[in-house]
Amino acid sequence: MTVSSPPPKLLPRNVSARRKGRDPASATRTTSGNPVSTRLEAGIGNCYPGLECDLRNLERRFFPFLEVDTDPDRNRIEVAAVDVDGAKAAAADGAISAADLENYRVIQRDIGRGATWSVSIIDGDFGPLGRQIVTVRDLATPSFGPRRAPADAWTAIRLLKEQSQVTLTLRRSPRPGEINLTGARVRYLDDDGALSRLFEPGELTQSLCSPWTHDFRDCGCYYWASNHPDIALPPLPDASTPATLPQWNLDTAWERSDRSILSPPVVTIDNGSPTVLRDSSAVREMRYHEISRDWQLLNFVLERREQIMPYAPASSAPGRPFPHKETLVEQLRYAAGVELAVMLQYLSAAWSLREDNDGLPGELRNDVRVAFAEMRRIAIGEMLHLRAVNDLLAGLEGPDFKPALAVASSIPIAGAKFLPLRFRAAAPATIVDFIEFEAPSQGIDGLYTRIFASLKEGRMGTEEQIQSVRALISEGGDHYQTFLFVQEWLGRHDSARYLVAGGPVDPPPGNAQHDELQKAYKDLLEALYTGLEMRMPAGASRINAARDSMLGGNGIEGKLQAVAAKGLIIKFDAIADKRFAPIAPPP
To answer: In total, how many domains does the chain have?
Structure first.
């Protein structure tokens, strides 16, 4: 008799994950107008002041009923407050002794009188460093060796294993005094995966820069910009002003000193420095006292534009569910082909850009580099979308599932039209087509709108599948905006200056580099098909191998570079194998 093991599961450990799959009404929601990068999950957590939260504050309540402050400069851990009420309740329940309760009272009373109680010695389990007794003032950076002591006071606290027994020796100053307390290292999270209720509201952010806008200004695009860019499009002066006019699509500094509505200053690569010298052409940003005085003049930014009028999110026609599950599956198979087709086209365009950009003038060099990086990033994103669509199909088709890796012969755009699959250099007309592919509520996004409606309103999918398609639609919006940027960056230059060989040409018959690329491409599809067909987790190694085969000089990236180095356009030949052959849009 064969005993089958239960399928592996991902166990949700945080509140957002635990809500997923329960009542959809209790699920976390995205704020209208804001990209996914502004959600808490995308927040920048740091161990120093600034950004969204200061993770050092997690250690402030590492020991029962004590709130401590860690001074890294003096290597000290000082008691800031005592939760005597909590200690009383614990004593009443028999969790701590009457002697310990009195010790807590003494510490609280002394702090109220101006005395200082500091942690002098910690006896505990420091995780990878093992159980030790450390004297806090003797800790020093760096420390070496398998039985080394923690590098500093804060690190010592952080290494203590949750729920392990810890004994503290506390000493008073200026009047001598010593108290020993033993308790369990406090947990960060409760059983629901949320921050423990012992943390006060605002405690994780209380040590941030005050005001945080000072830090935001001085980081100058290099630290915050991943999810809170400090440049934005200017606000429209009134509701009648079309957002498509060129003068309202030029970046401005969010903390600019010139708050003109009708003629906001324009930020460029050359004038965007927040440190402005006398007679400089740079856009001057607010000084520190101006930020503190005029913070109310800083506008909310939604969908990349500053808003000074009531905001109404862009609306689109709701998608109509497909009539049958079979139709939905057919559309998903075509959607997978679209993801694969646009990925190939984006790779072709990205590798048409000059690699020898060190010899280019400064602005052109920067524009080519960032355009290449962003198109490569989007191509990788489409590969992830291809995997997500196949996961959806696997869930809908069950044991009848076969991977969807046929390449779409044409890509949907607005107006129920299609553009044929073509491999072209990143000339202006090519980027225009890419923008059409990714336009919100049009093209690829419009295709997913009907799939989303079928899963949700048509009740053909699970909550997890609905959220998966929602993520695909959201990321498509990011791709659309990015191609608008690429159009702006490359549009400043003559395409002959930034394209390979002034404009790559088709590979001739029998070209060795082209043939090597085709072989690597077919091998990739073979490995990916096998991994997807095996399902997870059995197929994980095959899928990972397929992914790895794309990267580096020995992977597909190296083959792309070899073709481009010959001044040739990147092309992917149609494959006769019916698993990968071109697929037309469903009727």
So the answer is: 3
Q: Is residue 581 part of a domain?
A: no
Q: How far apart are CA 421 and CA 409, in angstroms?
A: 5
Q: Which of 444, 477, 485, 486 is nearest to 352 (CA)?
A: 486
Whether residues 334 and 430 share a domain: the answer is yes
Q: What is the number of alpha carbons within 13 Å of residue 286 lying toward its C-beta?
A: 22
Does 198 reside within a domain? Answer: no
The tokens describing 508, both together, are 């001739």
pLDDT tens sequence across 329-358? 999 999 999 999 999 999 999 999 998 766
The Cα–Cα gap between 69 and 255 comes to 33
d(CA 533, CA 438): 29
Residue where a domain terminates, one of 288, 313, 338:
313
Is the CA virtual torsion 124, 128, 134, 138 positive or negative? negative
pLDDT digits (tens, 9 = 90+) for 256-281: 889 999 988 887 766 655 555 555 66
pLDDT band at 2 (very low <50, low <70, confident <90, very high): very low
Which has the closest alpha carbon to 345: 551, 555, 560, 510? Answer: 560
> Is 580 a member of any domain?
no
Are 463 and 339 found together in one domain?
yes
pTM to 2 decimal places: 0.63
Domain range spanning residue 435?
Answer: 325-506
Amino acid (one-letter) located at 559? K
User: In this structure, are residues 442 and 416 in contact, taking their beta carbons and an 8 Å threshold?
Assistant: no
Q: Kindly state whether residues 166 and 245 are assigned to the same domain.
A: no
The answer to whether residue 5 scores a pLDDT higher than 80 is no
DSSP bridge partners of 253: 231
Q: Is residue 305 located within the same domain as residue 359?
A: no
Question: Can you tell me the distance from the alpha carbon of 16 to that of 462, in angstroms, rounded to the nearest whole number?
Answer: 17
Between CA 587 and CA 584 the distance in angstroms is: 9
The 10s digit of each residue's pLDDT in 87-126 is 999 999 999 999 999 999 999 999 999 999 999 999 999 9
**Residue 269: partners with Cβ closer than 8 Å, 6 or more residues away:** 363, 366
List the single range of 304-313, 362-371, 573-582 with lowest mean pLDDT: 304-313
**Tokens 């995780």 map to which residue?**
127
